[in-house]
Amino acid sequence: MTSATGETSMAFSDPDLIVVAGGAGFIGSHLCDRLLSEGNQVLCLDNLQTSRASNLRLLEGRDGFTFVEADIVLPLPDAVMSQAHRITRVYNLACAASPPQYQADPEHTMLTNVVGTNHLLRLAERSGARFLLTSTSEVYGDPEVHPQIEGYRGWVNCTGPRACYDEGKRAAEALAFDYVRTKRAAVRVARIFNTYGPQMHPDDGRVVSNLICQALSGRDITIYGDGSQTRSFCYVSDMVDALIRLMESDIDGSEPVNLGNPVELTVGDLAERVIAMTGTSGDIIYQPLPQDDPRRRRPDIARAREQLGWSPQVSIEEGLERTCAWFAAELGSVRELAAEAAE
Ligand code: UDP
């Protein structure tokens, strides 16, 4: 490669690089794993705010994997910017996603979505890379339209405790689509619905991890409200498959795509399944429903089916079995380590 000044550079012979911001988190670590398995070079950027150190340990040492500890709210470090010429894809999964965690530091949540997304969009612009934003079903708020289609504009409380996340993601979408309109970057926007599976943080506060960890340790099962609210749960391998398909698709970057499993369950149903699967002796206890907790949520995935040829493959029964087995092993090794430390 010869530059405008006549100098010869080897830079462009470096292999392509995929950036995964939030790559040490739950979905992000599965995404890094899959991209590495397919022979890609992956640069994982994470501030380790909500990730599990063990997720990172599964990736470190793998061929093609680089980890950079950084917070996307701050200007991206040289370790990332110096690789801009190699970067062909930027996945943005960087944000706390569980209500207790994103509400713990709401200012940081909002800035992660707005300032952080802008930093990554600028990186994509500079690299000429394609950018994928992981947005959320929370952009629909407590929806009046059911199931939720991408054209529904949502019913979000912009003054409530969920607003830092919901409005932050809505602003991130606005930014991403402005980059498309002004032809600054090629963008894909995924609206992710509830996702679960191995490598969730046991303490992250979400319903699947809470219920399974409570059941496996014989503690009481916490249901918020009366348990009649619904969610639709997607197993993580299906979600990763959808994200890669979306990134690699020719889908017009001016429209978001719902990604999730349309099988809808009440929280009460979910608790019963977990109780039956684990045979726990714990009781169900009812706690107050958090403010602005959506009553119903189910994705309409017609767009993903038609344009990505994607639909979830892992049933809720199979996904819960795998997740329970993983948490059982995980909690067992935590207990063993605690016992060893006490000896
Ligand atoms: N929930 C529950 N018990 C828990 C945790 C959550 O009943 O221990 C409820 C929560 O109020 C919500 C649903 O389960 O109605 C899903 O909550 P989660 O935090 O997993 O995700 P959300 O979809 O609300 O972002």
What does this structure look like?
With 343 residues, the protein is an alpha/beta fold. The chain has a domain at 17-196 and 234-261 and 294-313: NAD(P)-binding Rossmann-like Domain (Rossmann fold, 3-Layer(aba) Sandwich). It has helices at 26-37, 53-59, 78-81, 99-104, 106-127, 163-181, 207-216, 236-248, 267-278, 302-308, 316-342; strands at residues 17-21, 42-46, 65-69, 87-92, 130-136, 186-192, 195-196, 221-224, 230-232, 234-235, 256-259, 264-266, 284-287. It has a seven-stranded parallel β-sheet with strand order 3-2-1-4-5-6-11, sandwiched between helices. The protein has a two-stranded parallel sheet with strand order 7-10. Helix 5 packs parallel to helix 6 and helix 7 runs parallel beside helix 9. The longest helix has 27 residues, at 316-342. It is globular, with a radius of gyration of 20 Å. It starts with 16 loop residues before the first strand and ends with a helix. The structure holds uridine-5'-diphosphate. Residues 98-99, 194, 206-207, 210, 222-224, 229, 231, 267, 289-290, 293 line the site of uridine-5'-diphosphate (UDP). Uridine-5'-diphosphate (UDP) is lined by residues 98-99, 194, 206-207, 210, 222-224, 229, 231, 267, 289-290, 293.
